[in-house]
Structure formats: structure tokens, C-alpha cells
Amino acid sequence: MFRRKHASQFDSSDADQREAKINELKAALGPLSARNEKYCSVACLARYLEARNWNVAKSRKMLEESLKWRAAYRPEDIRWPEVSVEAETGKMYRAGFRDREGRTVLIMAPAKQNTSSHEGQIRFLVYTLENAVLSLPEGQEKMVWLIDFTGWTMANAVPIKTARETTSILQNHYPERLAVAFLFNPPKVFEAFWKIVKYFLDPKSIEKVKFVYLKDEESMKIMHKYIDPKVLPVEFGGKSNAVYNHEEYSELMTKDDIKMASIWTTEAKSDHVNHGISETLAPDVTSQHSLIAARAS
């Protein structure tokens, strides 16, 4: 009898198979500019492959779209003075603690929305994501979101246009960056809004969302598996008295801007010299500290 031939199945847990796919994707991309070469690390290629179930053709298309977006939007060149107004109420910031695996934690408080600028909010989101990635420890690719819905009403809901672009950026240009997202104390009315947002999310992202309620012990245990209550702020049922301080956070971001510039400026100069590409070099962030200090005073 004839034997049916089966196509070999890819095993994502097999290191050799993963390496082969990563090399295949790298070869498929072809020559890259210095900035794109910097972005397309082995870990980056693996994330895009994971996002497309290790299909090289689909991963290549996704990554090339991201490279086009990054070339136009230049997320690594956004600096704190440009977006600091969006952060004045503490509606989104990088927490001063990490989860149990050392991952960056982003805290968001939708009820503290303080602007109506679509572009401003998107640029602030991108800046915060880039900063979160910058702060990840070596070998760690994902972050944790803690979204506090205390005081949130539909009046605080972002416009559908902003929600759509937010989810598009997160899914298409920051694939496999989210480990888990905790929705803390969401009100009943949020369920209707969540149904709309879910429409723009892929199944993998939806699975990472956990609803957590302060008065629900079982749901709190889920969060405590990821974050030690000792470092968790009191408002989230933890034991830490840490609160957001805009002036202190501005100082931290200014230092991080210097670090970000040091990473990307060399690549920008290299692209300009070697490829004739007009690059907007990272601004002199050391001189921007005075701008923040003046704003805070």
C-alpha cells in the first residue's frame, strides 16, 4: 500500500528548528540599514515569528511593515519633553517595581485622562512602550500591564479611533511584548466597551487579559502569582506606599532619554553616511533637563 507523506511539523520548543527559522527570516529580509539591523535582533525576529506561528513569509511581511512604520514614526526619537504633559496626572507610567520574573510593569489609570489629543496620546503610548522595552533586563522580552479602573466611567473612554490605532500599534509593531494585562476593578459598564475593544484584538492577546477585583480573593491570587504584594502599591491591595510623583518621574525619563539616544544616535549617523538616508538625529537630551525642571517649577 502507498504511504501518505506527511509534511514535517515545526516544533517551536526545538532550539535547532527555531534557529533555522530565525536565520531564514533574516535572509529573507535582505540587507538592512544600521538602525533596522539594530532593531532586528535575534530576539526580535523570534517575536515576529512567534506572532505569525513561525510562518516565515507572514513574519517577513509583518516585520517589513513595522520597519516602514518605525522609519516614518521614529518611536526611538520621541523624547520626554514632547510627551510629558500627557503624564502629569499619572495616567500611564513605568512602575518602580517589577513582577516576580523581573519584567517591567506599566501602570495605567484611564480615569486620570487629562488630554483630548489623539496624536498626543498615541505618541505618549509609543514613548512609554519604548521606555518599557529599554528597561527590560537582558533575556526578558515581555512586560506586564496593570490597568486601574478605579473611578472610570464611559466619559473617560478613549475614542474608537484612538482605541483602534492603539491596538493596531500594539499588535502589529510590538508583537509578543505583553506577558499579561490585569484589568483592576473594572466597573460593569466597562463590559460594553470591552466587547468593542476585543473586536480589534487577536485571540492570543485576549487570553492574556485577566480581570482582577480587590474584593475577590481568588482573582487577587492570580495577580499575586505575577506580582509580590510586598512591592504592589496599597491601592492595588499591596503593601507598598509608593505613589506617582511627576517631578521624580520626569527626572527618571530624562536620564532614560540620554540612554535611548546613546543606543540609536550611532546607528542614525551610520545610515546617513553609508546609505545617504536623511536621518533626524536624536536631540541633545542633556540640554532638555532644564526644560523639564522649568515645567515642574
Automatic annotation (TrEMBL):
Pfam family name, one: CRAL_TRIO_N
Domain spans labelled CRAL-TRIO: 82-244
SUPFAM superfamilies: CRAL/TRIO domain, CRAL/TRIO N-terminal domain
InterPro entries registered for this protein in UniProt: CRAL-TRIO_dom, CRAL-TRIO_dom_sf, CRAL/TRIO_N_dom, CRAL/TRIO_N_dom_sf, PI_Transfer_CRAL-TRIO
Entry protein name: CRAL-TRIO domain-containing protein
Organism: Urochloa decumbens
Phylogenetic classification of the source organism: Eukaryota, Viridiplantae, Streptophyta, Embryophyta, Tracheophyta
